[in-house]
Specification:
Number of strands: 26
Strand content: 35-45%
Structural class: mainly beta
Radius of gyration: 28 Å
Helix content: 10-25%
Protein backbone atom coordinates (compact mmCIF):
# COMPACT_ATOMS: atom_id res chain seq x y z
CA UNK A 1 0.00 0.00 0.00
CA UNK A 2 2.77 2.43 0.90
CA UNK A 3 4.48 1.66 -2.41
CA UNK A 4 1.25 2.38 -4.32
CA UNK A 5 0.73 5.61 -2.40
CA UNK A 6 4.28 6.65 -3.17
CA UNK A 7 3.82 5.93 -6.86
CA UNK A 8 0.49 7.81 -6.89
CA UNK A 9 1.93 10.87 -5.15
CA UNK A 10 4.93 10.81 -7.46
CA UNK A 11 2.75 10.62 -10.60
CA UNK A 12 0.39 13.35 -9.35
CA UNK A 13 3.34 15.64 -8.68
CA UNK A 14 4.75 14.91 -12.11
CA UNK A 15 1.35 15.56 -13.72
CA UNK A 16 1.03 18.86 -11.83
CA UNK A 17 4.50 19.88 -12.96
CA UNK A 18 3.64 19.15 -16.61
CA UNK A 19 0.40 21.09 -16.32
CA UNK A 20 2.28 24.09 -14.97
CA UNK A 21 4.91 23.73 -17.64
CA UNK A 22 2.40 23.58 -20.53
CA UNK A 23 1.32 27.26 -20.54
CA UNK A 24 4.94 28.33 -20.08
CA UNK A 25 5.92 26.37 -23.14
CA UNK A 26 3.10 28.01 -25.10
CA UNK A 27 4.30 31.44 -24.00
CA UNK A 28 7.85 30.62 -24.96
CA UNK A 29 6.69 29.84 -28.50
CA UNK A 30 5.41 33.44 -28.93
CA UNK A 31 7.98 35.95 -27.76
CA UNK A 32 6.57 39.13 -26.27
CA UNK A 33 6.72 42.15 -28.53
CA UNK A 34 6.07 45.44 -26.73
CA UNK A 35 3.47 47.69 -28.35
CA UNK A 36 4.53 51.30 -28.44
CA UNK A 37 1.95 54.03 -28.48
CA UNK A 38 1.83 56.11 -31.66
CA UNK A 39 3.52 59.40 -30.74
CA UNK A 40 0.86 61.35 -32.64
CA UNK A 41 -1.75 60.02 -30.19
CA UNK A 42 0.21 60.88 -27.04
CA UNK A 43 -1.85 63.65 -25.40
CA UNK A 44 1.15 65.55 -24.02
CA UNK A 45 2.33 66.29 -27.56
CA UNK A 46 -0.78 68.35 -28.27
CA UNK A 47 -1.25 71.69 -26.57
CA UNK A 48 -3.98 74.25 -26.94
CA UNK A 49 -2.41 77.70 -26.83
CA UNK A 50 -5.03 80.01 -25.39
CA UNK A 51 -2.93 83.05 -26.29
CA UNK A 52 -3.67 82.28 -29.97
CA UNK A 53 -7.44 82.12 -29.51
CA UNK A 54 -9.42 84.77 -31.33
CA UNK A 55 -7.90 85.83 -34.65
CA UNK A 56 -8.10 82.45 -36.39
CA UNK A 57 -5.35 81.35 -38.75
CA UNK A 58 -5.57 80.87 -42.51
CA UNK A 59 -1.88 80.10 -43.11
CA UNK A 60 1.37 79.72 -41.18
CA UNK A 61 5.14 79.71 -41.68
CA UNK A 62 8.18 79.44 -39.41
CA UNK A 63 10.86 82.14 -39.38
CA UNK A 64 14.56 81.38 -39.23
CA UNK A 65 14.58 82.33 -35.51
CA UNK A 66 11.89 79.74 -34.73
CA UNK A 67 8.98 82.14 -34.30
CA UNK A 68 5.72 81.37 -36.07
CA UNK A 69 3.84 83.78 -38.29
CA UNK A 70 0.13 83.34 -38.93
CA UNK A 71 -2.02 84.96 -41.59
CA UNK A 72 -5.57 85.75 -40.52
CA UNK A 73 -8.63 87.81 -41.31
CA UNK A 74 -7.70 91.44 -40.75
CA UNK A 75 -3.99 91.01 -40.05
CA UNK A 76 -1.03 88.77 -39.25
CA UNK A 77 0.40 87.76 -35.90
CA UNK A 78 3.77 86.57 -34.68
CA UNK A 79 4.07 83.94 -31.95
CA UNK A 80 7.28 83.23 -30.02
CA UNK A 81 5.89 80.44 -27.83
CA UNK A 82 4.85 82.78 -25.03
CA UNK A 83 2.81 85.59 -26.51
CA UNK A 84 1.29 86.64 -29.80
CA UNK A 85 1.99 90.01 -31.42
CA UNK A 86 -0.98 91.11 -33.53
CA UNK A 87 -0.25 93.33 -36.56
CA UNK A 88 -3.54 94.55 -38.08
CA UNK A 89 -4.24 95.64 -41.64
CA UNK A 90 -5.44 98.98 -40.30
CA UNK A 91 -5.49 102.52 -41.64
CA UNK A 92 -1.74 102.82 -41.13
CA UNK A 93 -1.24 99.71 -43.28
CA UNK A 94 -3.42 101.16 -46.01
CA UNK A 95 -1.70 104.54 -45.83
CA UNK A 96 1.79 103.00 -46.05
CA UNK A 97 0.98 100.70 -48.95
CA UNK A 98 -1.72 102.60 -50.84
CA UNK A 99 -3.88 99.49 -50.73
CA UNK A 100 -7.64 99.85 -51.13
CA UNK A 101 -9.95 97.16 -49.75
CA UNK A 102 -13.71 96.87 -50.11
CA UNK A 103 -13.95 94.66 -47.02
CA UNK A 104 -11.78 93.35 -44.17
CA UNK A 105 -8.66 92.01 -45.92
CA UNK A 106 -7.58 88.38 -45.55
CA UNK A 107 -4.04 87.03 -45.53
CA UNK A 108 -4.32 83.75 -47.43
CA UNK A 109 -0.61 82.90 -47.77
CA UNK A 110 2.68 84.04 -46.25
CA UNK A 111 6.32 83.02 -46.22
CA UNK A 112 9.23 84.02 -43.98
CA UNK A 113 12.27 85.01 -46.04
CA UNK A 114 15.77 83.98 -44.86
CA UNK A 115 16.76 87.62 -44.26
CA UNK A 116 13.90 88.16 -41.77
CA UNK A 117 11.39 89.83 -44.06
CA UNK A 118 7.81 88.61 -44.18
CA UNK A 119 6.04 88.19 -47.51
CA UNK A 120 2.24 88.03 -47.44
CA UNK A 121 -0.63 87.73 -49.90
CA UNK A 122 -3.45 89.98 -48.76
CA UNK A 123 -6.64 89.93 -50.84
CA UNK A 124 -4.60 88.69 -53.86
CA UNK A 125 -2.07 91.55 -53.62
CA UNK A 126 1.52 90.90 -52.50
CA UNK A 127 3.11 92.80 -49.60
CA UNK A 128 6.42 92.66 -47.75
CA UNK A 129 7.01 93.56 -44.09
CA UNK A 130 10.53 94.84 -43.42
CA UNK A 131 11.74 96.55 -40.23
CA UNK A 132 8.16 97.03 -39.10
CA UNK A 133 6.99 98.75 -42.30
CA UNK A 134 4.78 97.33 -45.05
CA UNK A 135 5.20 97.96 -48.76
CA UNK A 136 3.32 96.66 -51.79
CA UNK A 137 5.17 94.39 -54.22
CA UNK A 138 2.34 93.44 -56.58
CA UNK A 139 -1.15 94.89 -56.95
CA UNK A 140 -4.29 92.79 -56.69
CA UNK A 141 -4.48 89.92 -59.16
CA UNK A 142 -8.12 88.88 -59.32
CA UNK A 143 -10.27 87.80 -56.39
CA UNK A 144 -8.91 86.36 -53.11
CA UNK A 145 -8.58 82.59 -53.23
CA UNK A 146 -7.49 79.92 -50.75
CA UNK A 147 -5.40 78.30 -53.49
CA UNK A 148 -2.93 81.21 -53.42
CA UNK A 149 0.53 79.89 -52.52
CA UNK A 150 3.95 81.41 -51.82
CA UNK A 151 7.11 79.30 -51.95
CA UNK A 152 10.89 79.67 -52.13
CA UNK A 153 13.10 77.68 -54.46
CA UNK A 154 16.65 76.48 -53.75
CA UNK A 155 18.13 79.42 -55.67
CA UNK A 156 16.41 82.07 -53.57
CA UNK A 157 13.66 82.74 -56.08
CA UNK A 158 10.20 83.61 -54.78
CA UNK A 159 7.21 81.96 -56.42
CA UNK A 160 3.60 83.10 -56.24
CA UNK A 161 0.69 80.96 -57.41
CA UNK A 162 -2.48 82.94 -58.08
CA UNK A 163 -5.80 81.84 -59.46
CA UNK A 164 -4.67 82.38 -63.04
CA UNK A 165 -0.89 82.87 -62.97
CA UNK A 166 2.33 81.38 -61.67
CA UNK A 167 4.95 84.10 -61.14
CA UNK A 168 8.59 84.13 -60.09
CA UNK A 169 10.25 87.09 -58.34
CA UNK A 170 13.90 87.86 -57.73
CA UNK A 171 15.05 88.08 -54.10
CA UNK A 172 14.91 91.90 -54.09
CA UNK A 173 11.64 91.99 -56.11
CA UNK A 174 13.31 94.10 -58.80
CA UNK A 175 12.35 91.54 -61.44
CA UNK A 176 9.49 89.15 -61.91
CA UNK A 177 8.11 87.03 -64.73
CA UNK A 178 4.87 85.24 -65.46
CA UNK A 179 5.91 81.62 -65.94
CA UNK A 180 2.44 80.31 -66.77
CA UNK A 181 -1.02 81.82 -67.24
CA UNK A 182 -4.46 80.32 -67.89
CA UNK A 183 -7.69 81.76 -69.24
CA UNK A 184 -10.31 83.19 -66.88
CA UNK A 185 -12.50 80.08 -67.12
CA UNK A 186 -9.64 77.91 -65.81
CA UNK A 187 -7.89 77.85 -62.44
CA UNK A 188 -4.49 77.01 -61.02
CA UNK A 189 -5.02 75.25 -57.70
CA UNK A 190 -1.61 74.11 -56.34
CA UNK A 191 2.06 73.62 -57.14
CA UNK A 192 5.26 72.21 -55.65
CA UNK A 193 8.93 71.58 -56.42
CA UNK A 194 10.36 68.10 -56.69
CA UNK A 195 13.81 67.25 -55.36
CA UNK A 196 15.36 68.09 -58.73
CA UNK A 197 13.89 71.59 -58.66
CA UNK A 198 11.25 70.92 -61.32
CA UNK A 199 7.78 72.41 -60.91
CA UNK A 200 4.56 70.41 -60.65
CA UNK A 201 1.51 72.54 -61.30
CA UNK A 202 -2.20 71.64 -61.10
CA UNK A 203 -4.68 73.16 -63.55
CA UNK A 204 -8.46 72.77 -63.33
CA UNK A 205 -10.48 73.19 -66.53
CA UNK A 206 -14.30 73.13 -66.76
CA UNK A 207 -15.66 70.01 -68.46
CA UNK A 208 -12.10 68.81 -69.07
CA UNK A 209 -11.13 67.83 -65.54
CA UNK A 210 -7.84 68.34 -63.75
CA UNK A 211 -4.33 67.87 -65.04
CA UNK A 212 -0.82 68.19 -63.66
CA UNK A 213 1.90 69.97 -65.61
CA UNK A 214 5.55 69.13 -65.08
CA UNK A 215 7.76 72.14 -65.84
CA UNK A 216 11.48 71.27 -66.01
CA UNK A 217 13.92 73.72 -64.42
CA UNK A 218 17.64 73.46 -65.24
CA UNK A 219 20.22 75.65 -63.44
CA UNK A 220 17.44 77.90 -62.22
CA UNK A 221 16.00 78.41 -65.69
CA UNK A 222 12.51 77.34 -66.69
CA UNK A 223 12.79 75.29 -69.85
CA UNK A 224 10.86 75.94 -73.04
CA UNK A 225 7.19 74.97 -73.03
CA UNK A 226 7.89 72.32 -75.68
CA UNK A 227 9.67 70.35 -72.94
CA UNK A 228 6.76 70.47 -70.50
CA UNK A 229 4.70 67.35 -69.81
CA UNK A 230 0.99 67.08 -68.99
CA UNK A 231 -0.65 64.23 -67.07
CA UNK A 232 -4.45 64.03 -66.50
CA UNK A 233 -5.82 63.33 -63.01
CA UNK A 234 -8.83 61.10 -63.51
CA UNK A 235 -11.37 62.38 -60.99
CA UNK A 236 -14.93 62.55 -62.30
CA UNK A 237 -15.69 65.62 -60.22
CA UNK A 238 -12.56 67.46 -59.07
CA UNK A 239 -12.55 69.44 -55.85
CA UNK A 240 -12.06 73.19 -55.80
CA UNK A 241 -9.11 72.98 -53.40
CA UNK A 242 -6.16 70.68 -54.02
CA UNK A 243 -2.67 69.96 -52.79
CA UNK A 244 0.43 68.50 -54.43
CA UNK A 245 3.68 67.47 -52.77
CA UNK A 246 6.92 65.69 -53.66
CA UNK A 247 7.93 62.73 -51.51
CA UNK A 248 11.49 61.78 -50.49
CA UNK A 249 11.66 58.97 -53.07
CA UNK A 250 10.73 61.22 -55.98
CA UNK A 251 7.08 60.21 -55.92
CA UNK A 252 4.55 63.04 -56.27
CA UNK A 253 1.37 62.99 -54.16
CA UNK A 254 -1.95 64.68 -54.89
CA UNK A 255 -5.11 65.29 -52.83
CA UNK A 256 -8.24 67.40 -53.15
CA UNK A 257 -11.07 68.38 -50.83
CA UNK A 258 -13.83 66.14 -52.22
CA UNK A 259 -14.46 63.03 -50.14
CA UNK A 260 -15.25 60.95 -53.23
CA UNK A 261 -11.78 61.41 -54.66
CA UNK A 262 -8.81 59.22 -53.86
CA UNK A 263 -5.38 60.18 -52.65
CA UNK A 264 -3.14 59.70 -55.68
CA UNK A 265 0.55 59.29 -56.41
CA UNK A 266 2.34 59.71 -59.70
CA UNK A 267 3.91 56.58 -61.16
CA UNK A 268 6.80 57.80 -63.30
CA UNK A 269 7.16 54.45 -65.08
CA UNK A 270 3.51 54.39 -66.13
CA UNK A 271 3.38 58.15 -66.64
CA UNK A 272 0.05 58.29 -64.81
CA UNK A 273 -1.63 59.17 -61.53
CA UNK A 274 -2.66 56.06 -59.57
CA UNK A 275 -5.01 55.92 -56.55
CA UNK A 276 -3.31 55.01 -53.29
CA UNK A 277 -4.29 51.71 -51.68
CA UNK A 278 -5.89 53.16 -48.55
CA UNK A 279 -8.31 51.63 -46.05
CA UNK A 280 -11.94 52.74 -46.21
CA UNK A 281 -11.54 55.91 -44.17
CA UNK A 282 -12.62 59.50 -44.55
CA UNK A 283 -11.26 61.18 -47.64
CA UNK A 284 -11.14 64.77 -48.73
CA UNK A 285 -7.95 66.67 -47.89
CA UNK A 286 -7.33 70.39 -48.16
CA UNK A 287 -3.56 70.44 -47.87
CA UNK A 288 -0.55 68.15 -48.16
CA UNK A 289 3.05 68.75 -47.13
CA UNK A 290 6.32 66.99 -46.32
CA UNK A 291 7.85 67.36 -42.87
CA UNK A 292 11.50 67.46 -41.86
CA UNK A 293 11.55 63.70 -41.33
CA UNK A 294 10.26 63.13 -44.87
CA UNK A 295 6.80 61.97 -43.79
CA UNK A 296 3.97 63.23 -46.00
CA UNK A 297 0.97 64.67 -44.14
CA UNK A 298 -2.47 65.38 -45.58
CA UNK A 299 -4.98 67.37 -43.55
CA UNK A 300 -8.75 67.05 -43.79
CA UNK A 301 -11.73 68.42 -41.89
CA UNK A 302 -10.52 67.34 -38.45
CA UNK A 303 -8.50 64.30 -39.51
CA UNK A 304 -4.94 63.61 -40.64
CA UNK A 305 -3.29 61.12 -42.94
CA UNK A 306 0.40 60.28 -42.57
CA UNK A 307 2.14 58.73 -45.57
CA UNK A 308 5.40 56.96 -44.84
CA UNK A 309 5.52 55.03 -48.09
CA UNK A 310 4.54 52.21 -48.32
CA UNK A 311 2.67 52.62 -45.02
CA UNK A 312 -0.32 54.88 -44.32
CA UNK A 313 -1.56 56.00 -40.91
CA UNK A 314 -5.00 57.53 -40.50
CA UNK A 315 -5.87 59.64 -37.46
CA UNK A 316 -9.56 60.38 -36.98
CA UNK A 317 -10.94 63.52 -35.41
CA UNK A 318 -12.11 61.82 -32.17
CA UNK A 319 -8.67 60.28 -31.66
CA UNK A 320 -6.90 63.60 -32.03
CA UNK A 321 -9.53 65.82 -30.47
CA UNK A 322 -9.07 68.41 -33.20
CA UNK A 323 -11.86 70.76 -34.30
CA UNK A 324 -13.78 69.78 -37.44
CA UNK A 325 -12.88 72.98 -39.27
CA UNK A 326 -10.03 72.86 -41.84
Amino acid sequence: LSVCMHISIHMNARLLFLCLLFPLSRLAAKPYTPRRMDPVLEPWRWREMSELNGPGALCVDEAIDGTLWFGAVGGVFQYDGLQANWIPFDQAFRADTGAVFSRIPWCTSLVCLPDGRLLAVVDSALFVLEDGAWSMVLEKQGSPDYSTRLALDSDGGIWLLGTYTLRRFSEDFSRHEVVFEVSRNERLTSFCFDDSGNIWLVRSRPFKGVESIRIPVVDGRVQAETQWSTFPIDDEQPGRESGICAGPDGRIWYVDNLGANAVRSFDSRAGAWLPADLPNVNKGYFYIFRDRRDTIWASGAGWLLAIDDPSFYYFSGPKLGLPSVP
